[in-house]
Amino acid sequence: MKTKMRVLTVDDSRTILAMLHHTLTNAGFEVLQAEDGQKGLDVLASEPVDVVITDINMPVMDGITFIRNVRSSGRFNSLPILILTTETSQDKRDQGRAAGGTGWIVKPFDPDKLIAVIRRVVH
Amino acid sequence: MGEFDAFQATFFEECAELLGELEEQFAAIADGDRSPGRLNAVFRAVHSIKGGAGAFGFVRLIGFAHAYETALDQVRSGTIVLGPASIKLCIRANDVLADLVSASREGRNPAPGLGDAEEMEFAALLAGETRAGEAEPVVADDEAPIEEFDIDFVPVMVDLAARPEAVRRTTGDDLDAFEDAPFRLSRNRYLIRFTPHGELYARANDPLILLRELASLGETEVRAIIGEIPPLSDFEPFGVYASWEIGLVSATASPEQIAEIFEFVEGICDLSIEALGEEDVSPSAPPAEAAPSFADLAAALIGSAAPAAPEIAAPEVEAPPMLSLVVAEPEADRRGAVQSIRVDLDKIDRVVNMVGELVITQSMLTQQMDETLRSRYQELVRGLEVLAQTTRGLQDSVMAIRAQPVKSVFSRMPRLVRDLCARTGKQIRLDMVGEATEIDKTVIEQIADPLTHMIRNAADHGIESIERRRAAGKPEEGTIRLSAEQAGGNILITVEDDGAGIDRERVLAVARSRGVVGPDQVLSDEQIDNLIFAPGFSTAETVSDISGRGVGMDVVRANIDKIGGSVDVRSRPGQGTRMTLRLPLTLAVLDVMLVRLGGLPYVVPLSVILETIQCARAEFGVGPSGARMLRVRGDYVQVVDLGAVFGVPSALPLEDRFILLCEAEAGLRVALVVDDIVGQQQVVIKSLEQNFERVEGIAGGTILGDGSVGLIVDVEGVRGLSVRRLAA
């Protein structure tokens, strides 16, 4: 039996988390949530995850630092990480990729596009 | 509620928190704290509002938040230094933001021109910075372009044109994609050469997925180029050796669509996409060699040749095994690394109710234990003691779940005071203390209106005009201090101003003219001050649009009474006024004194009882109307025989009975005569209105330890009843 894909969503905005949760669960994903990078790391430490979607601007630990920490831990070299960015912030996107981000999702996101983007980084 | 509405509700809830956060951060910034943490927090708050607004297409809100955010970004990067003027601008911008959020929530268009001035000032700030620093233009790729006009201010041109498109996209209307795709009857061939760099793998991109995505566009033939793979002895675990050539035949795919698949790996691979023309005329297409399977790769690795498999194996990957899932839903607490969850209030209330029943059952069990049972079943007794402790612990924990910091209400006040300043022309500073004090959520909801009214009252009637303050030798800026603290089983919320104090002569004159106070009645200063809470009382000579909306401070008292709290005012002429709200920690459980009337149990809230007196030791007198009075340290207090009021007359002589000296209204005392005082306990309040009907003099009911129903005495109501009985 094929088990569901698990997505870890990291964002300090409850609105965005709720929308991601809705879209992703409808598409058959299982969704984990964290509200900043530090909590994202905590979840990764204890839960198997197939793909991560993370915001950049967050309190406690921002998305760039989060990605850098995930990659430098050595445990998650093949874990796809998607960065949530706005259309205009090309520099954030580049910073995120330089830190080890796999791809990006442009906010505000269209549900179908969101799923399509995830399908482009996970099996 | 539809999903979309639910998201919007979440968004507006979050906006309220973020706006509160902005208030709080700017209060500290205005006090001189410019730490990067604060500047980042305000940037984030505005950024989050903009992000959420983007999802719902609140165009004006997005535009303004963007302009504000752009300025804040320069502030946190240090390009713009916040001075008093720019802090004021930001505080005004917070108000605009709040208004735009309200407009969006209510589905109306914001007032025309709202925020335009602030936006222009932000633009001027940015432009000024550029000139002064002679630095590179502040406008980076991600910021709104600034267009120069031949005027003093340079407006920020927010990229509004792009928004409708963004909005449309959220509707899931994807027809555009089809329109863009060229309509073909024939099929096109492409040759794609793809060589990943090490970086591609380091970022968890996976060539297999890209190949699979390509396959979704049409028919593919994939050839892996594995000649670079070294013998195992030279093999580097993270070395990059493989590349691919893909032949794609597709009726629909455009080169752009193919490129899009490789969007994420741009710059971290070598990629060429070559259009080979239409299917039938493409002799230059590469020979569709059988692609090697994993077995080939493995064979290549160990340096031995293996026969090529006829087809590439479809990438089929098993998902990792699952563990049981614990989803942690984050709570809005941005402060520390507190793990939290969001729970429906209904669910908590159910637990509160059940714990209430548990408390009653536990005390019922304890009461069943008579001496014989006690000596016989010591283990049972011990068990019951533990049960009692655990139950109490459980009760406290559940109450703590419902508790919330008063900050959620306090944070609305700075805005209120600013508005009041603008409207009255006064200068008022608001100091807030003890915002972290926690109080039951229901209580918090109930105090927002009274508190607003008290602050309005303090600003409108308390603090004097600038001229009058100057004349009185006071600083022009008046101060209102809003504080919260826990005191025993109560929360005290105090609104204190340094204004003129209550004009007692005028208050008394108005009270007499309205018949609130009899012509010969002599009142203490304290009693006069508290007249402002009397029903229908309002001394404002001109009805301002601030506190004079036809409702006076009596509404404050009524609201606070409803939740079992009390309100009191103390004033010093020329020095100021202090209003204190005394609130119960929780509404669900009440500390009471259990008494008996004609053999029946009644309970009186402990919070109103000042002292208990044996009738045999009390000193009675007779008042002017012939009513019996109790003499307490020189004062006479009205005596009410509770049994007589409730129609359960006492069989006991007066000297065997007891008096509860209670505070009915602040400053007004009443002596309740009861048959017996049983003791103190906690009870769970049951509403009489919901289960029966409203009864004057009774605030509610409760189930006592022995299962009998005890009625909760409404002391103020009882006093009113007995006054009318006397008059009749």
From TrEMBL, chain A:
SMART domains named in the record? REC
| Coiled-coil spans in chain | none
This protein is called Two-component system, chemotaxis family, response regulator CheY
Entry keyword set: Phosphoprotein
Q: Which PROSITE patterns match?
A: RESPONSE_REGULATORY (PS50110)
In terms of superkingdom, the source organism counts as: Bacteria
Pfam families in alphabetical order: Response_reg
4-aspartylphosphate: residues bearing it? 55
| One of the GO biological process terms | phosphorelay signal transduction system
The residues covered by the Response regulatory domain are 6-122
Signal sequence extent: none
TrEMBL record, chain B:
The HPt domain covers 1-104
- Identify one Pfam family in the record: Hpt
**Top EC class of this enzyme:** transferase
Positions bearing Phosphohistidine:
47
Instruction: Name the Gene Ontology biological process terms.
Output: chemotaxis
- The membrane-spanning stretches of this chain are none
| One cellular-component annotation, GO | cytoplasm
EC annotation? 2.7.13.3
Among the GO molecular function terms of this UniProt record, one is: phosphorelay sensor kinase activity
List keywords of the entry alphabetically.
Answer: ATP-binding, Chemotaxis, Kinase, Nucleotide-binding, Phosphoprotein, Transferase, Two-component regulatory system
- Reactions catalysed according to its record: ATP + protein L-histidine = ADP + protein N-phospho-L-histidine
InterPro entries (UniProt xref): Bact_Chemotaxis_CheA, CheA-like_dim, CheA-like_homodim_sf, CheW-like_dom_sf, CheW-lke_dom, HATPase_C_sf, HATPase_dom, His_kinase_dom
UniProt cross-references to SMART domains, sorted A to Z: CheW, H-kinase_dim, HATPase_c, HPT
PROSITE patterns for the chain: CHEW (PS50851), HIS_KIN (PS50109), HPT (PS50894)
Histidine kinase domain boundaries: 336-587
Q: Among its keywords, does the record have Nucleotide-binding?
A: yes
According to the entry, every stretch annotated as the CheW-like domain falls at 589-724
Q: Does the keyword Repeat apply?
A: no
PANTHER family assigned: CHEMOTAXIS PROTEIN CHEA, SENSOR HISTIDINE KINASE CHEA
Describe its function: Involved in the transmission of sensory signals from the chemoreceptors to the flagellar motors. CheA is autophosphorylated; it can transfer its phosphate group to either CheB or CheY.
Question: What is the name listed in the Swiss-Prot or TrEMBL entry for this protein?
Answer: Chemotaxis protein CheA
